[in-house]
């Protein structure tokens, strides 16, 4: 009598574990040491559009690639402003910053002036190719990028990542991660 009960209990536990996995959003991020997809994209800096190349940026040093859901939303504007305020600190460490969202380039052109204060570029990924390549798709709203930030070492590998919809700690964490890079890596 106990044996069938144990079997039934084990089945229920397995079903519960499976259903919990389906209901829990997957943690999506490339891991430390993973190679990142090199990309080119239309970008804007100070309202002017240009073609951004991650490979070209990495040739100069580490790159902070941060994904954000939507230009001009409150939290995305807060985050962009924080990156703009810290851009000199990143530059002093030999690092550059690029923001990426699924917004069109016209929207990002205005955002690059208003929220980014013409201090760093933002790239348009309307096709979500870059967003998907970096595992930055928002699980609950797949038309948007998740708020996910990466420090990419000059060799094209992930040195650090941070994922949180709250914009408050992204800049602080990215700056700390760039500071922690080996000196030969950070000052290429």
Task: Give a quick set of tags describing it.
188 residues, alpha/beta, Glutaredoxin, 7-stranded mixed sheet, 7 helices
What does it look like?
The chain has one domain (27-186): Glutaredoxin (3-Layer(aba) Sandwich). The chain has helices spanning 2-23, 54-58, 74-92, 105-114, 129-133, 170-180, 183-186, and strands at residues 40-45, 48-53, 63-67, 96-101, 122-124, 148-152, 158-163. With 188 residues, it is an alpha/beta fold. It starts with a helix and ends with a helix. Strands 2-1-5-4-3-6-7 form a 7-stranded mixed β-sheet. The chain is built from 7 helices and 7 strands, in the order H-E-E-H-E-H-E-H-E-H-E-E-H-H.
- Please give the share of residues in helix: 40-55%
Radius of gyration: 20 Å
Roughly what is the average pLDDT, rounded to an integer?
A: 87
Order of strands across the widest beta sheet?
Answer: 2-1-5-4-3-6-7
What would you say about this model in short?
This protein has helices at residues 2-23, 54-58, 74-92, 105-114, 129-133, 170-180, 183-186; strands at 40-45, 48-53, 63-67, 96-101, 122-124, 148-152, 158-163. It has 188 residues and is of the alpha/beta class. The protein has a 7-stranded mixed β-sheet.
SSE blueprint:
Blueprint (H helix, E strand, L loop, with lengths): L1 H22 L16 E6 L2 E6 H5 L4 E5 L6 H19 L3 E6 L3 H10 L7 E3 L4 H5 L14 E5 L5 E6 L6 H11 L2 H4 L2
Parallel strand pairs: 3-4, 4-5
Antiparallel strand pairs: 1-2, 1-5, 3-6, 6-7
